[in-house]
What does this fold into?
Amino acid sequence: MDEKAYPGRLPERERPWVMRTYAGHSSAAATNALFRRNLAKGQTGLSVAFDLPTQTGYDPDHELAAGEVGRVGVPVAHLGDMRALFDGLPLAETNTSMTINAPAMWLLALYGTVAMEQDAELARCAGTTQNDIIKEYLSRGTYIFPPAASLRLTADVIAHTLTTMPKWNPVNICSYHLQEAGATPVQEVGFALATAVAVLDAVRDSGQVPAERMGDVVQRISFFVNAGVRFVEEIAKMRAFGALWDEITRDRYGVTEAKQRRFRYGVQVNSLGLTEAQPENNIQRIVLEMLGVTLSRDARARAVQLPAWNEALGLPRPWDQQWSLRMQQVLAYESDLLEYPDLFAGSHVMTALVDEIVTGARVELDKVLELGGVVAAVETGYLKSALVASLAERRRRMESGADVVVGVNRYTETEPSPLTAAGAEAVEQVDPAVEAAAAEGVRRWRADRDDAAVDAALTRLRADAATSANLMPATLECVRVGVTTGEWAGALRQVFGEYRAPTGLAGATGAGGDPGLAAVRERVTATARELGSGRLRLLVGKPGLDGHSNGAEQIAVRARDAGFEVVYQGIRLTAGQIVAAAVEEDVDLVGLSVLSGSHLAAVPAVLDGLRAAGRADLPVVVGGIIPASDAETLRTAGVARVFTPKDFALTGIIDDLVTVIRHANDLP
It folds into this structure.
């Protein structure tokens, strides 16, 4: 019997989704070489990771960039760097995703300029600028400007691309980071759609797009989602996303053409769900998470990028990224998935689950709109508080064992893993000389340009920012005359100001039902009494540009539940600011959270600052993605404890903090 004649098969096999790996490190030249290797292995699109200084609008020679240059992505400080990044890569034929938000306009202007230098037609260039600033205030922390000014930049980019780059996705509404910050599926859908409504309202109300072209705007809006290991629920979530997006774009924006209302999304599966303990288990997690966004044909991802098995250990090597690419290729080319129509049409189970998520997400969306929209919900702290509370509840379930994580809270017995036997060699190492080279390179760039032209371009940018003019023309002029990333962002900082988002700690609690917390609380009270102070005081600090604050916030919440007075000033602090706060607040312990890999630069700077301030006696602990060899270096430098992702039991960590304080004060 001819298997191709089976009923229900598609007339021809579907084309696979765009396959990417999220890549970038060290320098533009090194990343260009990595791109070339990945494309040669069958990758069908590029996904550019930028380093934290680039993402937050700083040049590599800025004080806050110390230790961060080239670590979590590629540094791009000016047009020359962008030329080197895409050297020899035909941009008109390459679908390019750029994970950039606050300076998205700037990076798109650099990209477009390089494309034109290649004689590529901008109208043919396809790709995405992430450009979703709202989730930065809630999870990733790479915001610069206040929410309203940031939305204005997003709307300007959308209006610009509508006429000049019609195949480009000018914004990528991100629910990915909301899930990592604690969102339930209902919150993830509701909050992401609230962001999409804010973006579309900003475009509509800017007066830059005629009402009859809102359908063209809607069809270029894409989403970037997270897929967790509960893949059946993830399938339902994506179907719910599509149903609600169709409803909103039809009813709120009057888009009548069904094709324009289609929910278009790319996906990265859940990186923060990967474990340092028994990291080989991450392989099956990644495969299951990929199924959640590929099995359902009617809600299938348009692009997929998978993390590597060792992302909980450090920066993946090219071989690790290749392994993740091969997972996609096996599913797309070896399995029969792409030969069939939707597998879940008519499923009573799936329909009920989708309806449940749709109903809950509508409630969340309506709640945000009643508050005045997503900007108001950010500024009042509502969204951040909701996510902190949800993440605290998720942590509580894992600590109690209600949610099983294999190798972490159950089945922890293990043989040594040959995958990690190489130690530090199991992850990519960034040469410390990269930062010095980048800093020297940007200084040379500044020295070789026309200063008068630069000053004139920045003056125009500031002047236009003070009006309602679209800022893309002024930004393109800045690109052409050699303005740097830090100078562009600095000019807009002068007009818009900088922003510090609410931390979301107020009212959050996550220790309900933890039987060990009472004993820790008694130790906290007793230690404070023995020291003659009212309460133990903990300073939680986020040095450098690392904006991933979820772990720091959960430590702060649990410490407060245990009776600590917690001092937490949010993200992006210099060593000097952390030291000043520790001295001024007279804290008993400093806890530093560093997830970007800059711990060997950021932590010693704080230790040196405390010594200079006469507080060498003040104990310091550190948490982050820290290899064993680096942990030993930090302990030798004076750090009292080093915590990594394998230390998942928060109450146990807080108990250890009390022990550190007692030891530092010679208490038994």
Q: What stands out?
A: The two ends are 80 Å apart (CA to CA). Residues 348-370 form the longest helix (23 residues).
